[in-house]
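User: I'm new to structure prediction. If I give you an amino acid sequence, what do you actually give back? Let's try with this one:
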Amino acid sequence: MSIIGLLTFTNFNGLNAQEATEGEQAVVAEQKTTEAAETTDQVAEAAEDTEEVVAEAEETTKSFHQVLKEKYIQGGAGWMTPVLLCLIIGMALVIERILYLNMASTNVQKLLEGIEGYVKKGDYAGAKELCRNTRGPVASIFYQGLDRVNEGLDNVEKAVTSYGGVQMARLESNLTWIGLFIALAPSFGFLGTVVGMVQAFDDIEAAGDISPTVVAGGMKVALLTTVFGLIVAIILQIFYNYILTKIESLVGQMEDGSISFMDILVKNNK
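Assistant: Good question. You get back a string of structure tokens that encode the predicted 3D arrangement of the chain. For your 270 residues, that looks like this:
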């Protein structure tokens, strides 16, 4: 009986140990499953955070063209379009003036030396041909003077002075229109801002409450037209001043060249 009891007790302990081992394995498996689920949730959260960071990065790295397009739409096409037209037409006139003035530039000293060489030889036809083949207002003025050289120095001087005024008017052509667009661009911007503010106050009145969202949104849209109008005016004003400087330089060349031209004719008794 003792032997049977000992064997029974041993088997019972073995079964208990086996059951305990199986229970521990079940607990470990459950812990692993829980940890795996938690890891999956963390990976999912990390992926969501990564997507949010990428989205924010894409928003912050928008191209200048995209940002400009968005602001243009927010400002309202009805008021932003006139400002854009001022920029386009104004820049077209600016480019035309810059090209014309650059082509009007002349090496006055070299031209005077060539005319003096022909005049000393009495070859006024050669001097006129030289002026005809030289571009720029200075050469045109000299040509008009040489064309009247046989009428006396007084008539030559009058021709040079009169045609100098004509050339100056050509140099200043379209400047009035550029100045107009410089004034119109911010004016359209201010007008759009005023209208936008009126609309913002209408929205406040309709809502019956001063909501920061309504006020801020309306003011933002209203001020965008002013910002764009001022930017356009600044761009055109810079080019306008450059053109004025270029014209002043050419006018100075015309005046100095005309004096030297008359001196050449006087020295050669014509």
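You can read the tokens as a compact description of the fold. Here is one thing that stands out. Residues 1-61 form one domain.
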